[in-house]
């Protein structure tokens, strides 16, 4: 099985380093990126598309599908990590936002702690792991999943290290491995094990 993990096209929130909710749409640049990405996938034998139902991922998947015309399955397992409502539309550099994230990080090893209505890392990891398990039930060999930076990183960590990953693992991975909008990560399952063949390939953007 080949699994192509794709981060959605750019949004204005991405460009401005703002936290975003489910409703945020692709920017003009993001739409252009999605069209370029669609041309690339027209040359790849995709059999099935999974997509996060969040607008920015959904629209990216729909643009791709205008070219390849395959079934799209929208899965909540592929949604971005849910932040506290208090940080939505605010900059990642906002002092209050930083305090919330610092407090969340302080409690990173507590599977029951929440600041407010967010997912903690344990809940997020469990949700993404369900998507990996879902893949084992399909007979398709070439699958595209349009999602977000968080789920892609967690999937890679789960494939590499198994279910024992923690918040520190994710934090280190995120700070080291950048994911560009519409970057492609190719994972291949061989003899029951996952192999990461490419990470964040965005050569289609020039």
From TrEMBL:
Residues reported in the UniProt entry to bind substrate = 7-14, 56
The cross-references to CDD domains, in alphabetical order and at most eight, read: HP_PGM_like
Quick check: keyword Repeat in the entry? Answer: no
One GO location term (cellular component): cytoplasm
Q: Which UniProt keywords apply?
A: Glycolysis, Isomerase
Q: Which Pfam families match?
A: His_Phos_1 (PF00300)
Care to name a GO molecular-function term for this sequence? phosphatase activity
Which InterPro entries does its entry note? His_Pase_superF_clade-1 (IPR013078), His_PPase_superfam (IPR029033), PG/BPGM_mutase_AS (IPR001345), PGM_Phosphatase (IPR050275)
Q: What is this protein called?
A: Phosphoglycerate mutase
């Amino acid at each position: 099985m080949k699994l192509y993990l794709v981060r959605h096209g750019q949004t204005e929130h991405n460009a401005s380093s703002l936290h975003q909710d489910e409703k945020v749409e692709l920017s003009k640049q993001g739409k252009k990126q999605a069209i370029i990405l669609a041309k690339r996938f027209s040359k790849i034998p995709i059999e099935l598309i999974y997509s996060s139902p969040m607008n920015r991922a959904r629209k990216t998947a729909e643009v791709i599908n205008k070219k390849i015309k395959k079934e799209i399955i929208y899965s909540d397992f592929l949604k971005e990590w849910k932040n506290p409502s208090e940080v939505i539309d605010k900059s990642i550099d906002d002092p209050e936002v930083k305090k919330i994230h610092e407090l969340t990080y302080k409690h990173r090893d507590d599977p029951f702690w929440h600041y407010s209505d967010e997912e903690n890392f344990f809940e997020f990891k469990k949700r993404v792991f369900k998507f990996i398990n879902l893949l084992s039930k399909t007979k398709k060999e070439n699958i595209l999943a349009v999602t977000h930076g968080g789920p892609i990183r967690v999937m890679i960590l789960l494939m590499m290290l198994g279910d024992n990953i923690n918040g520190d693992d994710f934090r280190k991975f995120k700070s080291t491995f950048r994911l560009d909008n519409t970057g492609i990560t190719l994972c291949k399952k061989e003899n029951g094990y996952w192999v990461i063949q490419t990470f964040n390939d965005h050569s289609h953007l020039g």
